[in-house]
Amino acid sequence: MRALRQYRWLSYLLAGLNSSLTCTFAQRQVIDSLKFNLAHSQQDDVRSLLLTELAANYQFFNADTAILLTQQASEIAVRSHFPKGEAAALTRLGEVYRLRGDYAKALDTHFKALSVSRKTNDLSEEANTLSFAAIVYNELGEYRRGLDYLFQAERIYHQSPFESRAYRPFGKRAAYAGFRLSNIGDAYQQLGMLDSALFFQQQALRMPSSGLSYIPSQGLKALILERLALIKQLRHDLQGALVYNHQALIVASQVDDLLNKTRSKYQLAEVYAALGKADSGLYYARGAFQDAQKVLQKPLLLSTSSLLAQLYKSKNQIDSAFYFQEVASKVKDSLFSADRFRRLQMFILNEQQRSYELLQAQERSNSRVLRLSLLVGLAVSILVAFFLWRSRQQQQRANHILNRQNEQVEAQRKALEQTLDALKATQIQLIEKERMVALRAQMNPHFIFNCLNSIKLYATENDSEKASEYLTKFSRLIRMVLENSRSERVTLRNELDMLRLYADMEIMRFKQKLSFVVELEPGIDADFVEIPPLLLQPYVENAIWHGLMHKPEGGTVRVRASQPQENLLQLTITDDGIGRARAAELRSKSASHRKSFGLKLTSERITLVNQLYQTQAQVAIQDLVGAGGQPAGTEVILQIPI
């Protein structure tokens, strides 16, 4: 039986490989036309754009050829000093990597394209790259980041003419607008905002009928109809979903758009399965599975094989269900392998390094501004001295004017002193704010580094499903940390939600031996009260790793928010761990010491907050003792004026 399953898997792979080398007749005509123009073109800039366009037509059925073509296009563009061609080639290369499921390479390549287009102020290419980078973030589950990129592209498209003379043969504004609006709607749908999703999909459907050579107008229409069908399905309007999916399948079939035919069949199979029509569901699911192999779309192949496994299981056809479950498992392993995870991890760390380098550049810029301010102050002082000297000269000519001028000079001197004092105070405040921003920027890499180490350890010790669940929580946590770090203060609700998510991850690591409790005193408006971001997490982390990690039975971390006074918020973090003395003793004996870098940064941030806002925020840490004098844990009390 196992040999039979291996034979069937190999036959499906061979069929997929054979079909991947084919394309539609219409695509072949476009490809032949582009090759003809390429053979007769002598200008490097035109050759670069032609190679990029040729790669776009190969990307759905021969990714390796598409990659080679974009690399050639980029090399020609660099050699001929043609930044638009280089940015266009890099953007197309990033899209090919996305279609292959290599998201780390896709994002890295898109950011290189953005760097090129921004250096030359090429707004149209910058908007194009932002649109494709947004699709990568959407597929990674970073829908809000994807929306941000899409709306940035939308603003740029409205600010500048998209179809410049150099690029007019290779793009159409209407097609990109419809494609972009549909992607915005897709992101809203993933966020559960179905009304907004429906609005943007309907706007995309109303765009003029126009397409790109590699995205025909009918193919784009089929994609929009599929997404409208999915919205209907999520609203439990299954009959409406059937209507839209059948329309999408008809439109895609008219232009032999294999990718959208596959998606339409898959969605039809899902709807029929939801309606209890298993035979119809199996019919469309089998067709979607066969087509998914031809378009080399691993995520789509994973979805169709998983659905087939469910449908065969519901019909009690265990062998077929097991076979397709095995197919889904192999595809999933290829998509989420350890190597790809490590590359994505390195990419995230590199992005943190880029942010740090940007912060350093900003600090250097601030230093230049400070020097300029000092020069201006010196010039003002010289001018004041000149006017004072002139006043003394005039005093010798007229005594009655002398007294009046002395009064005016004195008033000017006092005003100038007040201005200089205000400038000094402002400079000090700006310096303190920059130090606060620098500390927040240090908190994020430290926090992300600790979480990534936890994910690496958990993925090593547990199965892939738990690792995938852990990675999902991590991605949500990273998004919250990055969003919170942009602000000087966040709501107490936001900070507590982030702590719960972090604690959930540690609970999974401790195999449910850890519990986390949040107590909110009645009368505290957690959505109104604001505190500095990432202020509590280092203390909770310290309680878990130094207080509870060494207890075989685990323990509890309790966070309590109270308001002893009207303008004072008190946050108490209590654990029933082994206490600080015992933890220090164990730490001194351990070969690997876990540094409390987060606590040091948090202490510095509290000091800066007090200096910057003239407040009296303070923290106290005390050991808890049981009835027999034994250590009973640690208590941290933070008092923050509000």
Protein described:
The protein is an alpha+beta fold. The protein has four domains: 1-22 and 259-335, Alpha Horseshoe (Serine Threonine Protein Phosphatase 5, Tetratricopeptide repeat); 25-136, Tetratricopeptide repeat domain (Serine Threonine Protein Phosphatase 5, Tetratricopeptide repeat), CATH 1.25.40; 336-486, no CATH class; 488-641, 2-Layer Sandwich (Heat Shock Protein 90), CATH 3.30.565. The chain is 73% helix and 8% strand. It has 23 helices and seven strands. It has helices at residues 2-20, 25-39, 44-58, 63-79, 83-99, 103-119, 123-139, 143-159, 173-190, 194-205, 217-234, 238-254, 258-274, 278-294, 298-314, 318-335, 338-395, 399-461, 464-485, 492-509, 537-548, 580-589, 597-613, and strands at 490-491, 514-520, 530-531, 555-565, 568-575, 618-625, 631-641. The strands form two sheets. Strands 2-4-5-7-6 form a five-stranded mixed sheet, with helices on one face. Strands 1-3 form a two-stranded antiparallel ribbon. β6 and β7 form a beta hairpin. Mean pLDDT is 79; it is low at 1-22, 162-172 and 210-214.
